[in-house]
Design a protein that fits this description.
- The N and C termini lie far apart (68 Å).
- The relative contact order is 0.12.
- This protein has 274 residues and is α/β, with parallel strands linked by helices.
- The chain is globular.
- It folds into 2 domains: 12-143, Nitrogenase molybdenum iron protein domain (Rossmann fold), CATH 3.40.50; 154-272, 3-Layer(aba) Sandwich (Rossmann fold), CATH 3.40.50.
- It has helices spanning 2-16, 18-21, 30-38, 71-75, 91-99, 113-126, 133-143, 174-181, 199-205, 214-219, 222-226, 236-240, 248-252, 258-272, and strands at 25-27, 45-48, 61-62, 81-85, 103-107, 154-160, 166-169, 185-186, 194-196, 209-213, 243-246.
Length: 274
């Protein structure tokens, strides 16, 4: 009887899960890639976009920026699934992929704790994987380590690609959300999305902290290069050299490491405030 039951379970698992074991997945978003890997499907990923830099153990074809993808480059890899987020995908590419008979799912990504948990649940459902609650709990466990700040500092995020490309994050951006979750206040309230940095905007914002992606600060030559930006030296952050940087994928991804990102930025704000 016992052997019969075990055989039945084996046959059932072989019937239900073979397609998951052999799935060929292309992920076109860093957070989506991280979730797929955390759910145990890293070996199924055959290609990613340029934002998929974590985990470092993932060594697959990089298709570049999602906005520049051609349907031919995707179809050539013969994927079973193409996954990404609505905010990243080019509608024309999405339609062409579907017309080519490739199953494509582009999730709505909300930049919040609940939105990240929902994204985890939706991707797990797509992969027919029911054991995903541990990822959601992990986010809560990490967030509980963050400390409340006595005074909420104003934080200005600057996206930099060398001194020639400097953009600041306004309202309704992932950067505004992560700053708020970490105990700070976004220094820009006059506009939404990203706009070019100006000395006037710096003075008007007068942030307590200036935040960069690590790669962005490096492109400027480190803190010394940042302090050479016109107007920086006149801000509170510039005078106190409260210039901080974090890994871009971690800071803005809103993936399964969201709790880790919140604690890391919260810690930097507290340590630099001493």
């Amino acid at each position: 009887m016992k052997k019969t039951v075990l055989l039945a379970l084996f046959l059932l698992s072989a019937f239900v899960y073979p397609q998951q074991k052999s799935l060929r997945i292309i992920s076109l978003n860093g957070a989506v890639t991280e979730i797929i890997c955390e759910l145990g499907f890293q070996q199924n990923i055959i290609a990613t976009d340029v934002t998929s830099t974590y985990p470092s153990s993932l060594k697959v074809k990089n298709l570049g920026h999602v906005r520049n993808l051609s349907v031919e480059s995707v179809v050539a890899l013969k994927p079973d699934l193409v996954l990404g987020t609505e905010k990243d995908i080019n509608p024309t590419l999405a339609n062409n992929l579907k017309a080519a008979g490739i199953k494509t799912i582009f999730y709505k990504q909300e930049f919040s704790v609940s939105g990240t948990k929902q994204l985890i649940a939706e991707i797990a459902k797509t992969l027919n994987h029911k054991d995903y609650a541990f990822l959601q709990h992990k986010i809560d466990q990490e967030i509980s380590k963050a400390k409340e700040l006595t005074v909420k500092p104003k934080v200005l995020f600057i996206y930099a690609r060398g001194a020639g490309t400097l953009m600041v994050a306004g309202k309704n951006t992932p950067m505004e959300k992560i700053i708020g979750l970490s105990g700070g206040i976004n220094a820009i309230t006059a506009f939404e999305n990203f706009k070019p940095l100006t000395p006037e905007a710096l003075l008007a914002a007068n942030p307590d902290y200036i935040l960069f992606f690590s790669s962005g600060m490096e492109s400027l030559g480190g803190i010394d290069g940042v302090l050479k930006i016109d107007g920086i030296e006149k801000t509170k952050a510039g005078k106190l050299k409260n210039i901080i940087a974090m890994d871009g994928t971690l800071l803005s991804g809103f993936g399964p490491r969201l709790g880790e990102a919140i604690v890391a930025l919260n810690t930097l704000l507290r340590e630099n405030g001493k």
